[in-house]
């Protein structure tokens, strides 16, 4: 071996004999195992019973269709959102149960029910999952799903690369789920607190899991960023100039410029840490000549642009929802573009506000304090523009708009606390307190609210029917109430001096506020059931809630509503020509809403391929082997990756032509189905239009 390891290792099994020394005596892990394995068996049984394996393989697993890839990204993100939420539930309940020296302990814990080591893994997994494997895939999913249609493209610039990005994310998800049962996860926080990540302080495989999960997911995000940028710059429909692009497309562009330039920094930081752990270098070990603050700088040089990597798409969602439900154009479209790119630019100049207390001096602190406050200017421009869009508009408080308004209110609160933390004097007092935790959860709740607004807004475009409105509002109010009861007390606890990452609360006076947080978690649990019930009921009533026109909301404004609900695999029967910023609103005003083109032409499309799945298989094997240091298996998997890529390079049969006659047949079937829906709606309501589309 390159370094001395604590515990067993041999050339064939690597560190896998270490599993024999781990004790799985915690029923929490047992419950998670039963839940994960049981859920997987139910899915396998259902696919087998209904004979859907062939359909799943042909239509989804091997697809390069950007819409299906987007849906799969969102599904993966939602699954991991629930996993991350369960971690949050354990954190909150553990802290409420472990208050004061007389609090009892069970399951091997002195207080509460989680041991300190297990608690450390839980909050590390929670942060890693929520940021990189829940929020990021969901946002990338919507970029894949909506952006190409918004600019009039048939698919992404590189459909194969798009599938590779998805499957790299799935590999990372698989590794983080495997760590729950096979070994353990990092206990050094989601940021990888040095020197805790060094081998001497983390001799088990937890940090290795964390490293390879992030490295592999970063590959997916980086190749996805290349693809999205190329699609926006090179695949726009005729007339779609840069200044006519929808704001969501602009936020997608800004987001992926950040991703393409920042994720390589994280890759290098983790590579250096990997060399420290595997080879015995000393990049981040102070006693070996290294500097662990170098890691902190590298991490946050990525970490704070990453915050805007996930916030900017949320701003894009709001910029689509607010005009639609205000029945007005977005106020000052050009200013929103400038504000978007300004946020992307300033995001690179604020990373050091994460450690004002490092002692770098007043000049450096002042620079980063001012830079942090500057972010508030373009963000404020966005808030005022959304407000001015609603002023004198016909605001409809349907479910997507409720989520958008909730997100904007949270942005005001999160922005105010962010300005407080941008002041070094305040930061000195509140650093490492749960006030900071409440602030960045506030910012991520902005994204969560915008995401759920986007789900309800674009659901009818993707699936052809509306989500149940009544259950959607119940879901919103439960989620909103949960957010208030969890994070308002957390802000207060921060002011009272409670620090983060505690498994035991020494101050009994904090107990009432901790109980309020648990009550808020209970409301979150209820909101999850409301969301799942909404999905089930909506699918059950899909015929009643079917969309009868291409514009599910009747007041939508952009080009994605100029094709069917759901769109065909080629998106548009004929490549659209763009005339205005709000192209669909322009067509509606000029009576040009017919989806039947003047003539049909052949369409060039990419073929499905199994290569990304094979690539993901070898990558997953490599990641698992690298975690457990089974070097012969890692070498075999690396050769598999290289061989698969070479095979793809020599593949020639990767696309096909859809004849004009086939396009006409598909379009005719779509239009007939739309007419049938309209007639059925008239029969049900006695009026023109379905209840879901009457305003």
UniProtKB/TrEMBL annotation:
Subcellular locations according to the entry: Cell membrane
Metal-binding as UniProt keyword = yes
- Chain coiled-coil ranges: none
The record, for InterPro entries, names: Cyt_c_oxase-like_su1_dom, Cyt_c_oxase-like_su1_sf, Cyt_C_Oxase_1, Cyt_c_Oxase_su1_BS
Q: Which PROSITE patterns match?
A: COX1, COX1_CUB
List the transmembrane segments: 28-50, 71-91, 123-146, 158-182, 209-233, 253-275, 299-318, 330-351, 363-381, 402-423, 443-462, 474-498, 510-533, 609-625, 631-650
- Using the record's annotation, list all stretches that form the Cytochrome oxidase subunit I profile domain: 51-579
Which Pfam family is one of this chain's hits?
A: COX1
Q: How does it sit in the membrane?
A: Multi-pass membrane protein
Name the GO terms of the biological process aspect.
Answer: aerobic respiration; electron transport coupled proton transport; respiratory electron transport chain
Gene3D superfamilies linked to this entry: 1.10.287.70, Cytochrome c oxidase-like, subunit I domain (1.20.210.10)
* UniProt-recorded Gene Ontology molecular function terms: cytochrome bo3 ubiquinol oxidase activity; cytochrome-c oxidase activity; heme binding; metal ion binding
Q: Does the keyword Manganese apply?
A: no
What keywords appear on the UniProt entry? Answer: Cell membrane, Copper, Electron transport, Heme, Iron, Membrane, Metal-binding, Respiratory chain, Transmembrane, Transmembrane helix, Transport
Q: Which GO terms describe its cellular component?
A: plasma membrane
**UniProt-listed PANTHER family:** CYTOCHROME BO(3) UBIQUINOL OXIDASE SUBUNIT 1, CYTOCHROME C OXIDASE SUBUNIT 1
Family indicated by similarity: Belongs to the heme-copper respiratory oxidase family.
Annotated protein name in UniProt? Cytochrome c oxidase subunit I
